[in-house]
Specification:
By secondary structure, the chain is of the alpha+beta class. Helix content is 42%, strand content 19%.
Length: 428
Protein backbone atom coordinates (compact mmCIF):
# COMPACT_ATOMS: atom_id res chain seq x y z
CA UNK A 1 0.00 0.00 0.00
CA UNK A 2 1.39 3.45 -0.84
CA UNK A 3 2.52 5.47 2.17
CA UNK A 4 0.01 8.24 2.93
CA UNK A 5 1.87 11.53 3.51
CA UNK A 6 0.92 13.36 6.69
CA UNK A 7 1.79 16.95 7.59
CA UNK A 8 0.50 17.94 11.05
CA UNK A 9 -0.15 21.47 12.32
CA UNK A 10 -2.09 23.10 15.13
CA UNK A 11 -3.47 26.63 15.22
CA UNK A 12 -3.12 28.73 18.39
CA UNK A 13 -6.87 28.22 19.04
CA UNK A 14 -6.29 24.46 19.25
CA UNK A 15 -7.57 23.38 15.83
CA UNK A 16 -5.62 20.33 14.74
CA UNK A 17 -4.83 20.37 11.00
CA UNK A 18 -3.79 17.36 8.91
CA UNK A 19 -2.55 17.93 5.35
CA UNK A 20 -2.06 15.02 2.94
CA UNK A 21 -0.90 16.04 -0.49
CA UNK A 22 -1.64 13.94 -3.61
CA UNK A 23 -1.72 15.64 -7.02
CA UNK A 24 -2.73 12.65 -9.14
CA UNK A 25 -6.18 14.18 -9.76
CA UNK A 26 -7.27 17.84 -9.58
CA UNK A 27 -9.61 17.35 -6.63
CA UNK A 28 -9.38 18.04 -2.93
CA UNK A 29 -11.23 16.70 0.12
CA UNK A 30 -12.00 18.84 3.18
CA UNK A 31 -13.02 16.85 6.25
CA UNK A 32 -13.86 18.06 9.76
CA UNK A 33 -14.34 15.74 12.73
CA UNK A 34 -15.82 17.19 15.90
CA UNK A 35 -15.19 15.23 19.08
CA UNK A 36 -18.88 15.05 19.91
CA UNK A 37 -21.40 12.31 19.23
CA UNK A 38 -24.43 10.80 20.87
CA UNK A 39 -22.35 9.52 23.82
CA UNK A 40 -21.84 13.15 24.86
CA UNK A 41 -25.58 13.79 25.19
CA UNK A 42 -27.22 14.37 28.54
CA UNK A 43 -30.11 12.21 29.84
CA UNK A 44 -33.36 13.50 28.36
CA UNK A 45 -31.49 15.18 25.50
CA UNK A 46 -30.95 12.18 23.22
CA UNK A 47 -30.68 12.87 19.52
CA UNK A 48 -29.10 16.31 20.01
CA UNK A 49 -25.81 15.53 18.25
CA UNK A 50 -27.65 14.32 15.16
CA UNK A 51 -30.21 17.13 15.29
CA UNK A 52 -27.36 19.57 15.49
CA UNK A 53 -25.72 18.08 12.40
CA UNK A 54 -28.91 19.07 10.54
CA UNK A 55 -28.83 22.57 12.02
CA UNK A 56 -25.32 23.07 10.64
CA UNK A 57 -26.81 23.18 7.11
CA UNK A 58 -29.42 25.82 7.98
CA UNK A 59 -27.25 28.84 7.33
CA UNK A 60 -24.68 30.83 9.26
CA UNK A 61 -23.54 34.45 9.63
CA UNK A 62 -22.69 34.90 5.95
CA UNK A 63 -24.39 31.90 4.36
CA UNK A 64 -28.14 31.74 3.77
CA UNK A 65 -30.24 28.68 4.57
CA UNK A 66 -29.50 26.02 1.96
CA UNK A 67 -26.71 28.07 0.40
CA UNK A 68 -23.97 25.74 1.70
CA UNK A 69 -25.33 22.99 -0.56
CA UNK A 70 -25.94 25.39 -3.46
CA UNK A 71 -22.42 26.83 -3.46
CA UNK A 72 -20.63 23.49 -3.20
CA UNK A 73 -22.76 21.82 -5.86
CA UNK A 74 -22.55 24.83 -8.19
CA UNK A 75 -18.77 24.53 -7.96
CA UNK A 76 -18.94 20.86 -9.00
CA UNK A 77 -18.38 19.52 -5.51
CA UNK A 78 -20.19 17.13 -3.20
CA UNK A 79 -20.80 17.28 0.55
CA UNK A 80 -22.50 15.63 3.48
CA UNK A 81 -22.22 14.96 7.19
CA UNK A 82 -22.77 12.06 9.59
CA UNK A 83 -23.24 11.60 13.32
CA UNK A 84 -22.38 8.55 15.38
CA UNK A 85 -21.70 7.44 18.90
CA UNK A 86 -18.28 9.08 19.31
CA UNK A 87 -18.17 11.90 16.75
CA UNK A 88 -19.79 14.11 14.13
CA UNK A 89 -18.12 14.76 10.77
CA UNK A 90 -18.66 17.20 7.90
CA UNK A 91 -17.01 16.87 4.51
CA UNK A 92 -16.73 18.29 1.01
CA UNK A 93 -14.96 17.04 -2.12
CA UNK A 94 -14.19 19.89 -4.48
CA UNK A 95 -12.26 20.78 -7.64
CA UNK A 96 -8.84 21.80 -6.38
CA UNK A 97 -9.23 25.48 -7.24
CA UNK A 98 -12.37 25.65 -5.03
CA UNK A 99 -10.56 24.63 -1.83
CA UNK A 100 -10.97 28.03 -0.24
CA UNK A 101 -14.74 27.96 -0.79
CA UNK A 102 -15.03 24.77 1.26
CA UNK A 103 -12.78 26.16 4.00
CA UNK A 104 -14.73 29.41 4.16
CA UNK A 105 -18.08 27.58 4.38
CA UNK A 106 -16.87 25.31 7.18
CA UNK A 107 -15.31 28.17 9.10
CA UNK A 108 -18.39 30.38 8.74
CA UNK A 109 -20.67 27.84 10.38
CA UNK A 110 -18.16 27.03 13.11
CA UNK A 111 -17.60 30.68 13.91
CA UNK A 112 -20.99 32.14 12.99
CA UNK A 113 -23.80 29.65 13.42
CA UNK A 114 -25.50 31.06 16.51
CA UNK A 115 -26.61 34.43 15.02
CA UNK A 116 -28.39 32.58 12.21
CA UNK A 117 -30.15 30.02 14.40
CA UNK A 118 -33.92 30.53 14.70
CA UNK A 119 -36.91 28.74 16.19
CA UNK A 120 -38.34 28.22 12.69
CA UNK A 121 -35.18 26.41 11.58
CA UNK A 122 -35.16 24.26 14.71
CA UNK A 123 -38.81 23.29 14.28
CA UNK A 124 -38.24 22.46 10.63
CA UNK A 125 -35.18 20.29 11.26
CA UNK A 126 -36.79 18.60 14.26
CA UNK A 127 -39.54 17.43 11.90
CA UNK A 128 -36.96 16.31 9.34
CA UNK A 129 -35.14 14.22 11.96
CA UNK A 130 -38.39 12.76 13.28
CA UNK A 131 -39.34 11.74 9.74
CA UNK A 132 -35.87 10.24 9.31
CA UNK A 133 -36.47 8.18 12.42
CA UNK A 134 -39.91 7.05 11.17
CA UNK A 135 -38.41 6.03 7.82
CA UNK A 136 -35.19 4.37 8.97
CA UNK A 137 -36.23 2.93 12.34
CA UNK A 138 -39.91 2.86 13.24
CA UNK A 139 -41.39 1.89 9.86
CA UNK A 140 -38.48 -0.13 8.48
CA UNK A 141 -38.52 -3.94 8.70
CA UNK A 142 -36.04 -4.93 11.41
CA UNK A 143 -35.35 -1.16 11.77
CA UNK A 144 -35.23 -1.17 15.57
CA UNK A 145 -32.45 -3.77 15.83
CA UNK A 146 -29.66 -1.29 16.43
CA UNK A 147 -31.24 0.59 19.31
CA UNK A 148 -32.53 -2.62 20.87
CA UNK A 149 -29.08 -4.22 20.80
CA UNK A 150 -27.42 -1.13 22.27
CA UNK A 151 -30.07 -0.99 24.97
CA UNK A 152 -29.47 -4.64 25.91
CA UNK A 153 -25.66 -4.56 25.63
CA UNK A 154 -25.09 -1.50 27.80
CA UNK A 155 -26.65 -0.47 31.13
CA UNK A 156 -28.87 2.61 31.30
CA UNK A 157 -26.06 4.63 32.83
CA UNK A 158 -23.74 4.00 29.87
CA UNK A 159 -23.76 6.59 27.05
CA UNK A 160 -24.03 3.86 24.39
CA UNK A 161 -27.33 2.68 25.89
CA UNK A 162 -29.35 5.06 23.71
CA UNK A 163 -29.32 5.33 19.90
CA UNK A 164 -27.75 8.22 18.01
CA UNK A 165 -31.02 9.24 16.42
CA UNK A 166 -32.60 9.73 19.86
CA UNK A 167 -36.19 9.41 21.01
CA UNK A 168 -39.27 11.21 19.72
CA UNK A 169 -39.93 12.56 23.22
CA UNK A 170 -36.48 14.08 23.59
CA UNK A 171 -36.58 15.56 20.09
CA UNK A 172 -39.98 17.13 20.84
CA UNK A 173 -38.59 18.64 24.02
CA UNK A 174 -35.52 20.21 22.37
CA UNK A 175 -35.56 23.98 22.79
CA UNK A 176 -33.60 26.66 20.99
CA UNK A 177 -31.65 27.29 24.20
CA UNK A 178 -30.76 23.58 24.40
CA UNK A 179 -29.39 23.64 20.88
CA UNK A 180 -27.44 26.85 21.48
CA UNK A 181 -25.95 25.35 24.64
CA UNK A 182 -24.93 22.19 22.75
CA UNK A 183 -23.21 24.22 20.03
CA UNK A 184 -21.40 26.47 22.50
CA UNK A 185 -20.18 23.51 24.53
CA UNK A 186 -18.90 21.26 21.77
CA UNK A 187 -18.35 23.19 18.54
CA UNK A 188 -14.99 24.87 19.02
CA UNK A 189 -11.69 24.67 17.12
CA UNK A 190 -9.99 22.98 20.06
CA UNK A 191 -12.55 20.16 19.84
CA UNK A 192 -12.06 19.49 16.12
CA UNK A 193 -9.72 18.08 13.50
CA UNK A 194 -9.53 19.55 9.99
CA UNK A 195 -8.02 17.39 7.25
CA UNK A 196 -7.27 18.37 3.67
CA UNK A 197 -6.32 15.58 1.26
CA UNK A 198 -5.67 15.71 -2.46
CA UNK A 199 -4.31 18.22 -4.93
CA UNK A 200 -3.39 21.46 -3.15
CA UNK A 201 -0.32 23.51 -2.32
CA UNK A 202 0.42 23.00 1.39
CA UNK A 203 1.72 26.51 2.08
CA UNK A 204 -1.20 28.45 0.59
CA UNK A 205 -3.65 25.91 2.04
CA UNK A 206 -2.29 26.49 5.53
CA UNK A 207 -2.55 30.25 5.00
CA UNK A 208 -6.23 29.82 4.02
CA UNK A 209 -6.87 27.76 7.13
CA UNK A 210 -5.22 30.35 9.36
CA UNK A 211 -7.17 33.13 7.63
CA UNK A 212 -10.60 31.52 8.02
CA UNK A 213 -10.28 29.41 11.19
CA UNK A 214 -7.61 31.34 13.07
CA UNK A 215 -9.93 34.11 14.38
CA UNK A 216 -12.43 31.63 15.87
CA UNK A 217 -11.86 31.51 19.64
CA UNK A 218 -11.20 28.30 21.53
CA UNK A 219 -13.56 27.05 24.20
CA UNK A 220 -11.48 26.67 27.38
CA UNK A 221 -14.24 24.63 29.03
CA UNK A 222 -15.07 21.75 26.67
CA UNK A 223 -17.25 19.41 28.79
CA UNK A 224 -15.76 16.07 29.70
CA UNK A 225 -17.42 13.10 28.04
CA UNK A 226 -19.60 10.97 30.34
CA UNK A 227 -17.80 7.99 31.89
CA UNK A 228 -17.81 4.89 29.71
CA UNK A 229 -16.36 2.23 31.99
CA UNK A 230 -18.21 -1.04 31.58
CA UNK A 231 -17.43 -4.68 32.39
CA UNK A 232 -15.88 -6.44 29.38
CA UNK A 233 -18.37 -9.30 29.76
CA UNK A 234 -22.12 -8.93 30.28
CA UNK A 235 -22.15 -11.88 32.68
CA UNK A 236 -25.16 -13.69 31.22
CA UNK A 237 -26.91 -14.29 27.96
CA UNK A 238 -29.62 -11.71 27.27
CA UNK A 239 -32.45 -12.68 24.93
CA UNK A 240 -35.45 -10.90 23.44
CA UNK A 241 -38.00 -11.95 20.83
CA UNK A 242 -39.57 -9.21 18.70
CA UNK A 243 -42.81 -10.06 16.87
CA UNK A 244 -42.90 -7.52 14.04
CA UNK A 245 -43.98 -6.83 10.48
CA UNK A 246 -41.07 -8.70 8.94
CA UNK A 247 -41.13 -11.27 6.12
CA UNK A 248 -38.74 -13.83 7.66
CA UNK A 249 -37.21 -14.63 11.04
CA UNK A 250 -33.88 -12.91 11.59
CA UNK A 251 -31.42 -13.38 14.44
CA UNK A 252 -29.18 -10.57 15.62
CA UNK A 253 -26.36 -11.48 17.98
CA UNK A 254 -24.05 -8.97 19.60
CA UNK A 255 -21.19 -9.14 22.10
CA UNK A 256 -19.18 -6.56 24.00
CA UNK A 257 -15.63 -6.56 22.63
CA UNK A 258 -12.41 -4.59 23.23
CA UNK A 259 -12.53 -1.03 21.95
CA UNK A 260 -11.41 0.12 18.53
CA UNK A 261 -7.65 0.68 18.48
CA UNK A 262 -6.85 -2.21 20.85
CA UNK A 263 -5.10 -5.51 20.12
CA UNK A 264 -8.28 -7.36 21.02
CA UNK A 265 -10.30 -5.34 18.52
CA UNK A 266 -7.76 -6.10 15.79
CA UNK A 267 -8.02 -9.83 16.45
CA UNK A 268 -11.82 -9.83 16.46
CA UNK A 269 -11.88 -7.74 13.30
CA UNK A 270 -10.18 -10.72 11.63
CA UNK A 271 -12.78 -13.05 13.19
CA UNK A 272 -15.53 -10.84 11.72
CA UNK A 273 -14.12 -11.43 8.24
CA UNK A 274 -13.49 -15.14 8.77
CA UNK A 275 -17.11 -15.62 9.80
CA UNK A 276 -18.97 -13.36 7.41
CA UNK A 277 -17.00 -11.51 4.74
CA UNK A 278 -17.57 -12.95 1.29
CA UNK A 279 -19.16 -16.13 0.00
CA UNK A 280 -16.18 -18.21 1.13
CA UNK A 281 -16.64 -17.13 4.74
CA UNK A 282 -17.56 -19.78 7.31
CA UNK A 283 -21.10 -18.63 7.97
CA UNK A 284 -22.02 -17.98 4.34
CA UNK A 285 -20.52 -21.26 3.16
CA UNK A 286 -22.18 -23.34 5.86
CA UNK A 287 -25.53 -21.63 6.54
CA UNK A 288 -26.36 -20.26 3.08
CA UNK A 289 -24.70 -22.63 0.61
CA UNK A 290 -24.36 -26.00 2.33
CA UNK A 291 -27.13 -26.26 4.94
CA UNK A 292 -29.37 -23.76 3.13
CA UNK A 293 -30.95 -22.53 6.36
CA UNK A 294 -30.12 -18.83 5.86
CA UNK A 295 -30.94 -16.24 3.22
CA UNK A 296 -28.04 -14.00 4.12
CA UNK A 297 -25.28 -13.46 6.66
CA UNK A 298 -23.77 -10.20 7.90
CA UNK A 299 -20.95 -9.64 10.39
CA UNK A 300 -19.21 -6.46 11.49
CA UNK A 301 -17.59 -4.71 14.42
CA UNK A 302 -18.53 -1.21 15.56
CA UNK A 303 -15.24 0.79 15.65
CA UNK A 304 -16.05 2.75 18.83
CA UNK A 305 -13.96 3.66 21.87
CA UNK A 306 -16.38 4.15 24.77
CA UNK A 307 -15.54 1.33 27.16
CA UNK A 308 -16.48 -1.51 24.81
CA UNK A 309 -17.04 -1.94 21.10
CA UNK A 310 -19.72 -4.20 19.57
CA UNK A 311 -19.27 -7.47 17.66
CA UNK A 312 -22.40 -8.05 15.58
CA UNK A 313 -23.80 -10.94 13.53
CA UNK A 314 -27.13 -11.23 11.83
CA UNK A 315 -28.61 -14.09 9.83
CA UNK A 316 -31.98 -14.24 8.08
CA UNK A 317 -33.81 -17.58 7.89
CA UNK A 318 -34.77 -19.11 4.59
CA UNK A 319 -38.56 -19.53 4.08
CA UNK A 320 -39.73 -22.53 6.06
CA UNK A 321 -36.69 -22.66 8.34
CA UNK A 322 -37.34 -22.20 12.04
CA UNK A 323 -35.32 -19.69 14.00
CA UNK A 324 -34.31 -22.37 16.53
CA UNK A 325 -32.55 -24.51 13.95
CA UNK A 326 -30.98 -21.43 12.36
CA UNK A 327 -29.65 -20.32 15.71
CA UNK A 328 -28.19 -23.76 16.48
CA UNK A 329 -26.38 -23.75 13.13
CA UNK A 330 -25.05 -20.24 13.82
CA UNK A 331 -23.57 -21.09 17.23
CA UNK A 332 -22.04 -24.29 15.86
CA UNK A 333 -19.99 -22.30 13.35
CA UNK A 334 -18.99 -19.59 15.84
CA UNK A 335 -17.94 -22.22 18.40
CA UNK A 336 -16.02 -24.21 15.78
CA UNK A 337 -13.93 -21.21 14.76
CA UNK A 338 -13.31 -20.26 18.40
CA UNK A 339 -12.23 -23.83 19.15
CA UNK A 340 -10.09 -24.79 16.20
CA UNK A 341 -9.05 -21.39 14.90
CA UNK A 342 -8.70 -20.48 11.24
CA UNK A 343 -6.62 -22.39 8.72
CA UNK A 344 -3.72 -20.79 6.92
CA UNK A 345 -5.82 -20.61 3.75
CA UNK A 346 -8.62 -18.82 5.57
CA UNK A 347 -6.22 -16.28 7.03
CA UNK A 348 -4.69 -15.66 3.62
CA UNK A 349 -8.16 -15.14 2.12
CA UNK A 350 -9.26 -12.51 4.64
CA UNK A 351 -5.87 -10.76 4.57
CA UNK A 352 -6.20 -10.44 0.80
CA UNK A 353 -9.77 -9.19 1.13
CA UNK A 354 -8.77 -6.69 3.78
CA UNK A 355 -5.79 -5.42 1.79
CA UNK A 356 -7.93 -4.98 -1.30
CA UNK A 357 -10.57 -3.11 0.67
CA UNK A 358 -8.12 -0.80 2.41
CA UNK A 359 -6.15 0.03 -0.72
CA UNK A 360 -9.23 0.71 -2.86
CA UNK A 361 -10.80 2.82 -0.09
CA UNK A 362 -7.70 4.95 0.38
CA UNK A 363 -7.54 5.64 -3.35
CA UNK A 364 -10.55 7.90 -2.74
CA UNK A 365 -9.27 11.12 -1.24
CA UNK A 366 -12.56 11.65 0.58
CA UNK A 367 -12.08 8.35 2.44
CA UNK A 368 -8.40 9.12 3.04
CA UNK A 369 -9.31 12.48 4.60
CA UNK A 370 -12.00 10.88 6.74
CA UNK A 371 -9.68 8.21 8.15
CA UNK A 372 -6.96 10.77 8.87
CA UNK A 373 -9.51 12.85 10.79
CA UNK A 374 -10.72 9.73 12.58
CA UNK A 375 -7.29 8.61 13.81
CA UNK A 376 -6.41 12.19 14.81
CA UNK A 377 -9.71 12.79 16.63
CA UNK A 378 -9.96 9.45 18.45
CA UNK A 379 -6.27 8.78 19.18
CA UNK A 380 -4.34 11.92 18.16
CA UNK A 381 -2.44 9.56 15.87
CA UNK A 382 -3.28 10.15 12.19
CA UNK A 383 -0.19 8.04 11.40
CA UNK A 384 -2.27 4.95 12.20
CA UNK A 385 -3.62 5.16 8.68
CA UNK A 386 -0.30 3.76 7.48
CA UNK A 387 -0.46 0.72 9.75
CA UNK A 388 -3.93 -0.54 8.84
CA UNK A 389 -2.56 -3.48 6.86
CA UNK A 390 0.27 -4.40 9.23
CA UNK A 391 -2.05 -4.37 12.27
CA UNK A 392 -4.42 -6.75 10.52
CA UNK A 393 -1.70 -9.01 9.13
CA UNK A 394 -0.13 -9.33 12.57
CA UNK A 395 -3.16 -11.28 13.78
CA UNK A 396 -2.48 -15.04 13.63
CA UNK A 397 -4.69 -18.04 14.33
CA UNK A 398 -3.78 -18.11 17.99
CA UNK A 399 -4.83 -14.51 18.53
CA UNK A 400 -8.14 -15.16 16.77
CA UNK A 401 -8.87 -18.13 19.04
CA UNK A 402 -7.83 -16.24 22.15
CA UNK A 403 -9.93 -13.18 21.33
CA UNK A 404 -13.00 -15.22 20.37
CA UNK A 405 -12.82 -17.30 23.54
CA UNK A 406 -12.46 -14.15 25.61
CA UNK A 407 -15.39 -12.24 24.11
CA UNK A 408 -17.74 -14.48 22.10
CA UNK A 409 -19.09 -16.76 24.81
CA UNK A 410 -22.78 -17.21 25.73
CA UNK A 411 -22.24 -15.19 28.93
CA UNK A 412 -21.44 -12.12 26.85
CA UNK A 413 -24.15 -12.49 24.23
CA UNK A 414 -27.30 -10.56 23.34
CA UNK A 415 -29.68 -12.46 21.07
CA UNK A 416 -32.46 -10.52 19.39
CA UNK A 417 -34.87 -12.59 17.32
CA UNK A 418 -37.36 -10.93 14.97
CA UNK A 419 -40.36 -13.08 14.15
CA UNK A 420 -43.10 -12.41 11.57
CA UNK A 421 -46.36 -11.33 13.17
CA UNK A 422 -49.81 -10.87 11.64
CA UNK A 423 -49.89 -7.37 13.10
CA UNK A 424 -47.16 -5.50 14.95
CA UNK A 425 -49.61 -3.20 16.68
CA UNK A 426 -48.33 -2.81 20.19
CA UNK A 427 -45.80 -5.62 20.03
CA UNK A 428 -42.53 -3.90 19.14
Amino acid sequence: MPHIPIDRHQLPNGLRVILSHDDRAPIVAVNLWYDVGSRHEKPGKTGFAHLFEHMMFQGSANVAKGEHFDLVQAAGGSLNATTWLDRTNYFETMPSHELELALWLESDRLGGLLPAMTQEKLDNQRDVVKNERRFSVDNQPYGTWDEKLQGLLFPETHPYHHPTIGSMEDLDAASLDDVREFFTAHYAPNNAVLTIAGDFEPGPALEMIEKHFGPIPANPAIPEAPPTEVDPIIGAEVRQEVPDRVPLPRIYAAYRMPIFGSEGFNALEVAVDLLGSGRASRLYRSLVREQQVAQDVTTFAFPVIGGAAIFTIWVTARPGVGHDSLEAALWAEVDALAGEGPSDDELERVRNLHASGVESSLERISERADRLSMYACLFDQPEQINTELSRYEAVDAGRVREAMNASLGPDNRVVLTYLPAESAEGTA
